Amino acid sequence: MTAIAVTIAGSDSGGGAGIQADLKTFSALGVYGASVITALTAQNTLGVNAIHDVPPDFVTAQIDAVFSDLKVDAVKIGMLGRSAVIEAVAAGLDRWGGMPVVLDPVMVAASGDPLLVPEAVESIIAHLIPRAGLVTPNLHEAARLTGTPMAASRAEMVAQGRAILGMGARAVLIKGGHSWETEAADVLVDAAGERWFSAPRHPTENTHGTGCTLSSAIASGLAKGLDLDAAVRVGKAYLTAAIRAADALHIGAGHGPVDH
Ligand code: PLP
């Protein structure tokens, strides 16, 4: 049987991040992808020109249409934009959930443009972190969620992971892609302890869609029945290859996408 994953996220008209990156990742990893779109961005590799929010009722309508028909094996959640959409997604998970949920707490695009209104951080903490099997913040997002300065050591990354676990997530993967280290080292924290996943850092400007790609790749592994550690290992390997291949793409004049 074909494994099915659903992405609940924003559309990137430039094709590099968001729903478009998620569906490319699902496809590349042999998983059937469906989508619930939370916002439309008018965007290219240079930046986000405009955002058009999808009404919460229509987010609900998409969730109900997809989950009432497709046997969903895993969910990835990305850009949500604002609190009313977050609450609609949380209610949808309560109606249809039970499968693994990977929550990428997207706040800012690679171009620096905001993708979440600041007050909605509290809604993510209240409504979605407790419903998530895995939360995948980068260093900036982990700092915002925990209300502490950006981690400057591995011990601080682990401490922030534990703080987010305390908010009700079952596991947290803090991504060290923006860190001080020569390797890109991510730490997975759950009740069993902590495990590090490292890859050599690859110097490139073309990192648009990296967060989306990793969370979707992990959701793909979970949809196929891998355990969490295996899904993170396979997902990280997929992202590392996607970053290494990015410079050969030559898409746009700004931060180009990773390759699928
Ligand atoms: N979702 C949407 C719709 C976006 O446009 C972006 C970035 O531009 C993201 C998510 C997050 O992107 P990344 O995967 O680079 O963190």
TrEMBL record:
A matching Pfam family: Phos_pyr_kin
EC annotation from Swiss-Prot or TrEMBL: 2.7.1.49
InterPro entries according to UniProt: HMP/HMP-P_kinase_dom (IPR004399), PM/HMP-P_kinase-1 (IPR013749), Ribokinase-like (IPR029056)
Broad EC category: transferase
Pathway: Cofactor biosynthesis; thiamine diphosphate biosynthesis
Positions in coiled-coil regions: none
MF terms (GO), sorted A to Z: ATP binding; hydroxymethylpyrimidine kinase activity; phosphomethylpyrimidine kinase activity
Presence of keyword Acetylation: no
Domain Pyridoxamine kinase/Phosphomethylpyrimidine kinase: 12-259
GO CC term, one of those recorded: cytosol
SUPFAM superfamilies: Ribokinase-like
CDD domains linked: HMPP_kinase
Keyword set, alphabetical order: ATP-binding, Kinase, Nucleotide-binding, Transferase
GO BP annotation list: thiamine biosynthetic process
This protein's name: hydroxymethylpyrimidine kinase
Organism this protein belongs to: Methyloraptor flagellatus
